[in-house]
């Protein structure tokens, strides 16, 4: 991570791609899973807002080790949540 601005851009990009994948799956998927697709889109938007907010409020702004640890944990947490959404979307597509 070079700076907060790049991290915010990455989070926005990943959220947009997740939403696009959900919309495409909903458009081309057979079955009535529109409610589940809407739920995944909502979770993605909530995830985006939550993590953009967390970027602006790191713990221990005076200690660089604490800040680096905070951002590493934030990125790992974001990746875990994105993976969960992708796994649910993949399960819907089967």
Describe this structure in words.
The chain is 82% helix and 0% strand. It has 94 residues and is mainly alpha-helical. The longest helix is centred in the C-terminal third of the chain and has 30 residues, at 64-93. It is elongated. The N and C termini lie far apart (35 Å).
Give a brief description:
The chain has helices at residues 4-28, 34-55, 64-93. It has 94 residues and is mainly α.
Q: What topology emerges from the helices and strands here?
A:
Elements: H1 4-28, H2 34-55, H3 64-93
Helix pairs in contact: 1-2, 1-3, 2-3
Kindly estimate the percentage of residues that lie in beta strands according to DSSP.
Answer: under 5%
Total individual domains: 1
Distance between the ends: 35 Å
Mean pLDDT across all amino acids: 89
Q: Determine Rg (CA atoms, Å).
A: 16 Å
- Largest sheet report: none
Low-confidence regions:
none
Proportion of residues in helical segments: over 70%
Number of E-state strands? 0
Instruction: State the shape.
Output: elongated
Query: Helix and strand succession?
Result: HHH
- Our count of helices gives 3
Alpha-beta classification: mainly alpha
What tags apply to this protein structure?
single chain, 94 residues, mainly alpha, 82% helix, 0% strand, elongated
């Amino acid at each position: 991570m070079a700076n907060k601005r790049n991290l915010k851009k990455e989070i926005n990009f990943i959220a947009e791609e997740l939403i696009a994948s959900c919309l495409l799956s909903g458009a081309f998927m057979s079955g009535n899973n529109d409610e589940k697709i809407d739920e995944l889109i909502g979770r993605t938007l909530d995830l985006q807002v939550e993590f953009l907010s967390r970027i602006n409020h790191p713990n221990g702004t005076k200690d660089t080790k604490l800040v680096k640890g905070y951002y590493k944990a934030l990125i790992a947490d974001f990746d875990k949540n994105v993976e969960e959404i992708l796994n649910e979307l993949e399960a819907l597509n089967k």
